[in-house]
Design brief:
94 residues, mainly alpha
């Protein structure tokens, strides 16, 4: 996951995927691993300030996906399971 960096400050506009407000260089925000959109950590990322600071310092590796990307990932996983079921490659465990 990427935190705010200098290249973001040069970009004209990076709206938060949740609140729509601009993500600025001094914002605590993260970038989605899938779609590269940005989100303030306070806008539903479930990343606390301590974890964010550890990530910025390079002490923690995180992979964060926005809610839109999560929906697509869930759909893709569901499709893979359906295909595997159809091919007899996956057996549901009850």
């Amino acid at each position: 996951m990427e935190a705010i960096n200098d290249s973001l400050a040069m970009s004209p506009l990076h709206p938060c995927v949740e609140c729509g407000k601009r993500v600025q260089k001094n914002s605590k925000a993260v970038q989605c691993e899938s779609c590269d959109k940005w989100c303030h950590i306070r806008c539903g990322t479930r990343i606390d300030a301590t974890t964010y600071e550890q990530m910025v310092e390079g002490n923690v590796d995180l992979f964060w996906f926005c809610r839109v990307a999560k929906k697509y990932i869930d759909l893709e996983i569901g499709m893979v399971i359906l295909i595997a079921l159809a091919l007899g490659l996956y057996v549901r465990q009850m």
